[in-house]
Amino acid sequence: MKRFICFLVFVALYACCNAKYFKTHCDLVHELRKQNFPEDQMRDWVCLVDSESARHTDVIGKPNKNGSRDYGLFQINDNFWCSNSTIPGKGCRVTCADLITDDITKASICAHKIFRRQGFPAWHGWTKRCQGDLPDISDC
Question: Which PROSITE patterns match (predicted)?
Fold first, then answer.
């Protein structure tokens, strides 16, 4: 337990110095395009990010019912996808700290992988908020 608390402190300190906030939907869209997110799904991805992290890269979610946590812009779960150590691991072969930096490359690669396996329903925020009224990004 002490080790896990130390890890969370490290992650929090790391994130505060390396985090990014996408102020507008268009800022986020431009970055998601750089990360090869498909145009025909862009509104869904923007809604997902709004719902999951409010466009902040440094978000670490509160513990889930099973004790796991979600990390970063896409709120990627540490039970399956990232490792809570300094050694990359689990499904995306990344550390959870890799997912909370201003460079969203590793988080994007992982989000693509999760999507290929499970689709948008893998994210509770998308399931709860994004199945109808999607954000207008036509000016982006």
Answer: GLYCOSYL_HYDROL_F22_1 (PS00128), GLYCOSYL_HYDROL_F22_2 (PS51348), PROKAR_LIPOPROTEIN (PS51257)
In a domain, 91, yes or no: yes
Residue at 88 is within a domain: yes
- To the query of whether residue 70 is one of the catalytic residues in this protein, the response is yes
Domain containing 21 equals 2-129
DSSP-assigned letters across all residues of 30-59: HHHHHTT--GGGHHHHHHHHHHHHTTBTT-
- Residue 52 annotated among the catalytic residues of the structure: yes
Question: Please, what sign has the CA dihedral across residues 46, 19, 84, 4?
Answer: negative
Angle between helix 25-34 and helix 42-53 axes, rounded to 10 deg: 120
Convert the pLDDT of each residue in 57-69 to its tens digit: 999 999 999 999 9
Catalytic residue among 52, 58, 78, 98: 52
How far is it, in rounded angstroms, from Cα 20 to Cα 131? 27
Active-site residue identified among 31, 70, 78, 98? 70
